[in-house]
Write a structure and sequence with these properties.
The chain is mainly alpha-helical. It contains 6 helices and 3 strands; from the N terminus they run E-H-H-H-E-H-H-H-E. It has a 3-stranded antiparallel β-sheet with strand order 1-3-2. The longest helix is centred in the first third of the chain and has 26 residues, at about 10-35.
Amino acid sequence: MGELGGVPAGFWRRFAAALIDGLLLGIVTGILRAFLGYTGQGIGVLISLGYFTYFHGSTGQTPGDAALGIRVVDVRDRPGQPIGYGRAAARWLVSIASGIVVLLGYLWMLWDPQRQTWHDKAVGSVPVHKGYSN
């Protein structure tokens, strides 16, 4: 497992964790939009930024990550530790670019030796799983 506390998490495990987080945030944003219209949508985007910044910056795990046994950890300055709030916010912002380019930034992990997406590479992080890679 090395100094990161696990092996880089595989595509399907990460996909399932993202799906759980997306459903949670989608429900919140849907409720806000129902009551506030497009203002609610904007608030939902800010909640998403706060959600990923808080969880990845503090514990390295969103609820979706925790359900699938994943932690986003630092590979650069403090290997195996959470990446902190600033880098977590930057990771979220770059994840938007990862998705805009036909999801290429997300799919990058499929051929990257460290299984990093563009947003992982940008901030020096990698999601790890304690156990076997999938």
